[in-house]
Amino acid sequence: MASSPVELAGVITGIACVWLAARNSIWNFPTALVSCALYVIVFWEARLYSDMALQGVFIALAFYGWYQWLYGGPQAQELPITRATALQWTWLSAVAVAYAVGVGYALSAYTDAAIPYWDSSTTAISLVAQVLLTRKKIENWILWLVVDVAYIGLYWHRELYLTAGLYAVYLVLATYGYLEWRRLLRANLQPQAA
Description:
By secondary structure, this protein is mostly helical. It has one domain (about 5-190). The protein has helices spanning about 5-20, 30-45, 50-70, 85-110, 115-135, 140-155, 160-190. It is globular and about 55 Å long. The model has no long low-confidence stretch (mean pLDDT about 90). It comes from Hymenobacter qilianensis. Its main location: membrane. Required for nicotinamide riboside transport across the inner membrane. Belongs to the nicotinamide ribonucleoside (NR) uptake permease (TC 4.B.1) family. It is found in: Cell membrane.
């Protein structure tokens, strides 16, 4: 499958979106809306249905995250960067495993999905990472590092070379995002001078 102008536009807006998120900028969310809409088309054409559906969820989460980042903090103020709790990790991990197995089976049994379990597993991890991002949990970047590596292989295998390249860039940006958010988190935890 050859790269298309829609895929190229998705790559450009995707890079902008992740760069803005790594910089802790609220503008990552409107940029995400454009990128996700473009990737609905790309993944439909590549028969990566779980990834296509994921873009729809990402669109909903972009609206949710946009609101949360503006008003989800104490007293409806800007949401601060924090760490996920053990309970959040337990719940999100259980959901991810159930999704990966259940959707992987459904894709395998009922569709012509190219790589059903790989597709559903990367989608499950992406969902957890995106939920953590909407709540400004620093661990979102660690999950993005893991899933970006898996996506590079998946998209290369499906001959989506621009998108595989995009995920290589995402890998670099996720590293930067983690380091930047760690710096901001530490700065916020420092006692304020009186």
